[in-house]
Structure formats: C-alpha cells, structure tokens
Amino acid sequence: MKFRNIKERVVAVLKEKGLNVNRASGVLGMPQRTLNRQVNEGGNVTMELVYAIIDCFPEISPQWLVAGEGEMYREDDRVTAEYAVPFYSDLPVSAGLRDAFDPARETPGSYISLPSKNADFFFPVSGTSMEPEINPGDIIGVRKLAPGENIVHGGIYMVVTNDTRMIKRCYYDDHNAELIWCVSPNFPSFPIKKSDICAIFRVVNRIETLS
Q1: Measured between alpha carbons, how far is 178 from 158 in angstroms, rounded to an integer?
Q2: pLDDT band at 96 (very low <50, low <70, confident <90, very high)
Q3: What is the pLDDT of residues 37-91, one digit of tens each?
Q4: Which numeric CATH code is attached to 6-75?
C-alpha cells in the first residue's frame, strides 16, 4: 500500500505495532499531547518523532519512513529477532531507596528475545507515579545514554542516583543548565542536579501488562 506522506507512514507504523497515541507516548518517550498533535491533528511530523520511531523500532526501514522508498521493514528484519537481552525480574523501579543500579553486581534472572536491538536490558516496573503511561507490572526496556548524549526534552528516562532509581519524564530547566526536572502524572515535579545523577537510561521499549 502506498502512503502519500510521512505522516501517513508514521500512522501506519503505530497501527502495525498496535499502538494508540497513549501507548505510543510511553514507548517512544514523547509527551502524549505532542504526539497527538502530530499524528491525529494538523501538526507536522517532527524529526524528533521520526528519530524516536527509528530508535525504538530498528526493524522499520528509515528510507521507507522518511522518503517512502522500499518496504516498511528492512529486508534483514522480517524474521523474529535472534538475539537476547538481559531481563531482571527483581529490579522494581520506583521512588524507593534501593542501591543504584550496577550491572556488574546485579545478575539477570533470564534473557528475552524481542524485535528490537537497542535496549540494554528489560525489567518490570513497580509504583504508580507514571500511570497511565507506564503501569505497575509493565516491562520496559532501557538504553543507557552514551557519553555526551543529551536527553530528549520531555522524554521518559530511568534516572539513577546514589539513593534511588526512578522512571520520570525529564525536562531541561529554562534558567539553570545544571538542573533536570523530573515529572510524572501522579506526583509533584522536582528538580535534580546533573551532578547527582550516576546514570541515566532512556526508556525505549514498553511491554504493557493487560488485565
């Protein structure tokens, strides 16, 4: 099927993945309002959204998504992925006071294979701070930011400090470059100093728990 423009191809990808705007917001790490404006309303599709799709779904052909050339899926990604990533079944993330995450000290209980190549590891989420975008029991995949890599304003991240690890939307502070604001639907927003962050991981995959 031919699509006339990039917006139609973006919509086609979300439909292919079974994602409505609410679910896609959590998976892609974009604010729901922003995503809805670009997908369902008259807003233009931004490169931030394009990069988020390519980042989260590497099996999608960038040439097809951007220019409409070729097929939706890369030729080498039509089959089920043959790689495995660590799954930590006992790594709840909330506002609790657990030790900061250290892959060298924490052993995955198993490995899982998913059609995505960019998550460093997967684990279940506890706590309700990100409902309804991310719910307790959902499994998320995260990728550690590379040195020098900046956060995406409004993206969803696992922030690790010496005292805790938490899932939040992260925003730059308009007046202080040393602060990042941590925002969630159900708790007050608060700033955190960049110097207090041990590591930060972008949420790149979400497996929703269905009742």
Answers
A1: 18
A2: very low
A3: 999 988 888 888 888 888 778 778 888 888 888 888 876 544 344 445 666 666 6
A4: 1.10.260.40
DSSP per-residue string spanning 34-81 = HHHHHHTSSPPPPHHHHHHHHHH-TTB-HHHHHH--S-SB-GGGSSPP
Task: Report the relative pairing of strands 155-161 and 197-207 from DSSP bridges.
Answer: antiparallel
Could you tell me the residue ranges of all domains in the chain? 6-75, 85-207
Sequence-distant contacts of 75-80: CB under 8 A, at least 24 apart: 77/115, 80/113, 80/115
Kindly state the DSSP code that residue 137 receives in the 8-state scheme.
T
Q: What is the reported pTM? A: 0.54
Domain 85-207 sits in CATH 3.30.70.141 = no
